[in-house]
Amino acid sequence: MNMDEHLQGKPPIDAPITSSADDDLGRAPVAHHFADCIRELDASEGLVIGVLGPWGHGKSSFINLMREQFAEEPTLTVVDFNPWMFSGSDQLVSFFLTEIGAGLNISNKSRFGKTADWLAQYAGILKPVSQFIPVAGAAAVGEAAAAALSGLSGTTHADRSATKLREEITAELRGLKQPVVVVIDDIDRLTTGEIREIFKLVRLTASFPNVVYVLAFDRERVEQALTEDGVPGRAYLEKIVQLSFDVPAAPAKLLRSQVVDELNRVLAPVADAVLDESRWSDVYWEVIDPLFSNMRDVTRYAISSRATIKSLGKEIDLVDLLAMEALRVFRPELTQHLSSLRKELTRTSDTGRRNGDRAQKSIDSLFERFADDSELIRALFKRIFPVALKYVENNHYGSDWLGTWRTAHRLAHIDFLNLYFDRVAPDELVAFRSSERAFALLNDESPLRTYLTGLDPNQLETVLEGLTAYEAKFSTDMVVPGSITLLNLIDAIPENKNRGFFDFGRPEVTVRRVVLRLLRRVDDQAEREKLVTDILAGTETYSAQLDLIDSVGHREGVGHKLVSEKFAQTIEADFVARLQRTPPVAPSREWDAWSIYNAVRLSTGKPPLSNKTDPVLARSVIRAAKLTARSQFEDSRQVKREDSLAWDPLVEVFGTEAAIRRAVANIRNTLGDEPILQLADKYLSGWRPEERI
I want to staple 389 with a disulfide (CB 3.0 to 4.6 A). Which of 376, 395, 426, 536 is the partner? Predict the structure, then answer.
């Protein structure tokens, strides 16, 4: 699903529609017909209409569509009363009548001015009346109201009694040619006490002629609020509401089309957004769709997820992100609980054996706490966090999946799950973003080198290691430019002095892993050999050339046999001849100078170096002997307390210790003293470090 054609527009708002132009559900004809039916009813003694439906089913929108019909000639005056504006029963009646009067005055002062004034006066008299109106026991309402009015038969400033004033209001309203519509919406959002007060009010004033009350509420919620002393709320409602309309739920097919439209709008700010079609359908039907009940849910999801998708849509797989946002909006407690289970959701089977029992208990606790959502959680595990399937079924994922999830930006990888919950990228993810950029440039040598050399050198090894996660996406056109660039950067990667005891990786090892994976993408051996030849031609240091030759060749314990044995012998012989013919152009860059000259010694049977060797090159050879010694100790798991040199191999390339002594003196005189020369002096004095197993 390409997102280039997404709907563009403003973010949705969680508000009812106001006209047929916005009627995506096609309810306008029904609303207009219902409003027309109300016109035909006899409202001479007042009328109470109910527009019913659960929260979010579109009651307010339905009433707004009814208004369009009320606005047709002959026009009906519509007055809105907001029940959220009053605080307590003492204010309710007064506020209600005052609001109705004000609404009539605004609508048509010449027509309703007198009625509005009388309603305001009447409001002052009836302020405490609602206290006498019971909810249950509806038969007593009339008597209670009469008693209340009788007890409050004082006069206004115009010496009119309440009864007289009511009669004049009644006469005035009875003379109207068209009824007045009073809309009271959102009743079901009030507290139980407030709901009761509203229906007391309607009961008290419902007998005004030519006044049609349109009440919008959730039947179940209101009936529950009105139930008292064994008298069911439904019985009370039936005595008040003469006609009702149940707003239907949006058809599932139409609801889903709205979801798609809103998702298109939400995804619009994400440049080049693409949904993984192979996963989207299953994730939508199993995780997202069950969470939607009505159009308000759709709008709420679109509003709530927009900011997250805008900020993380280019960082995290969109299918995963849309699913988790649906969960966050509609199941916030479950989402919060999942945040505490990040390791359980992302730790593969071969990396978390020690904590298996504890993790299982955590997952069992999750299902116990959210038992009603057990199917949703299972779907979430299956589609978003496949590692967690091992807790509920015999389905295990090993660490070899981590690279796949990482390159796909899946929440199944801990780095991206942490990014979602914390909104801060962990250091590993920051480095991986650089790996992604490097991967995108892997087929273009110059831009790739420019990009990599512009990074923090201390992060370079981590960035190159991240490229291995893209092995499945490596292509033939990346082999030569990518390999040349990486091999030429080995000497630019600083030694990691904080490397752990069991961390045997080194810069050349990291580069080697990537280069070998690139070459393995080529199946034909002849073609692979041609690529190796091209790579060698572009590799700047002899150290990197020899590392490649050894890696692809047949040397015991080192070679991966990616080329024929004959080809391996040929390129090795060419290497030795080339080195004998042309010394290193930049000897300080030769990070494994000992090995390259040891290759010459093995080929010729003679020491290739002497006391007259260029001091910069000789120093590189001695430095490399220290690295070679460390490598040997790592391979055998031997540990040296002090710094060590591969002394005997070093003597072999120089011929004698005397030659090394003169070479060290020449280096010190030319380049100055340094610790590696002092270490060589110790060896020349006969010292040798003790070995500890």
Answer: 395
Which of 178, 66, 166 minimizes the C-alpha distance to 123?
166
Which tokens belong to 558? 């080192």
Backbone angles phi, psi at 451, to 5 degrees: -65, -50
Q: Is a pLDDT exceeding 60 seen at residue 131?
A: no
Residue 642 CA to residue 691 CA, distance in Å, equals: 9
Quick one: average pLDDT of 452-458?
Answer: 92
C-alpha separations of 154 from 149, 151, 208, 244 in Å: 9, 8, 21, 38
Q: Which residues pair with 245 in a beta bridge?
A: 51
With beta carbons less than 8 A apart as the criterion, state whether 27 and 62 touch: yes
Residues 6+ apart with CB under 8 A from 142: none
Annotate 106-146 with DSSP letters as a single string.
Answer: HH-HHHHHHHHHHHHHHHHHHTTGGGG--SS-GGGHHHHHH
**Secondary structure (3-state) at 248:** coil
* 3-state SS assignment for residue 172: helix
What confidence score (pLDDT) does residue 163 get? 76
CA 318, CA 540: separation in Å to the nearest integer? 42
Helix (H) or strand (E) holding 297: helix 295-312
Rounded Cα distance between 525 and 417, Å, is 41
Amino acid at 33: H
| Coil, strand or helix at 77 | strand
Task: Tally the C-alpha atoms within 13 A of residue 689's C-alpha that lie toward its C-beta.
Answer: 19
pTM here is: 0.64
Three-class SS state of 216: strand
Give the contacts of 324 (CB within 8 A, at least 6 positions apart). 335, 384, 411, 420
Write the DSSP assignment of 17-43 as a string of letters: --SGGG-TT--HHHHHHHHHHHHHS--
* Residues with Cβ within 8 Å of residue 12, at least 6 apart in sequence: 262, 265, 299, 302, 303
CA distance to 276, 279, 305, 427, per residue, from 408 (Å): 10, 12, 21, 18
Containing 217, the helix (H) or strand (E) segment is strand 211-217
DSSP character string of 138-163: GGGHHHHHHHHHHHT--B-TT--BHH
Segment 319-332 mean pLDDT: 93
CB neighbours (10 Å) of residue 449?
A: 17
DSSP characters over 571-636: HHHHHHHHHHHS--SSGGG-TTHHHHHHHHHHHHSS----TTS-HHHHHHHHHHHHHHHHHHHHHH
Helix (H, G, I), strand (E, B) or coil at 212: strand
Cis bond before residue 74 (omega within 30° of 0): yes
**Token reading at 337:** 């609980």
* Cα torsion 336, 341, 343, 347: sign: negative
How far is 244 from 48, CA to CA, in rounded Å? 9
> Is the confidence at residue 622, as pLDDT, over 80?
yes
Dig out the tokens for 652 from the structure. 């072999």
Rounded to the nearest 5°, which phi and psi values hold at 676? Answer: -65, -30
Question: Hey, how many other C-beta atoms are within 10 angstroms of the C-beta on 688?
Answer: 11
| Angle, helices 219-226/192-205, rounded to nearest 10 degrees | 90
What 3 state SS string does 430-492 have?
Answer: HHHHHHHHHHHCCCCHHHHHHHHHCCCHHHHHHHHHHHHHHHHHCCHHHHHHHHHHHHCCHHH
Which residue stretches of 175-210 are H helix? 192-205
Condensed to tens digits (0 to 9), the pLDDT of residues 385-412 reads: 999 999 988 788 888 899 899 999 999 9
- Find where tokens 């290497």 sit: 575
The Cα 594–Cα 512 span in angstroms is 19
Bridge partners (DSSP) listed for residue 214? 49, 183
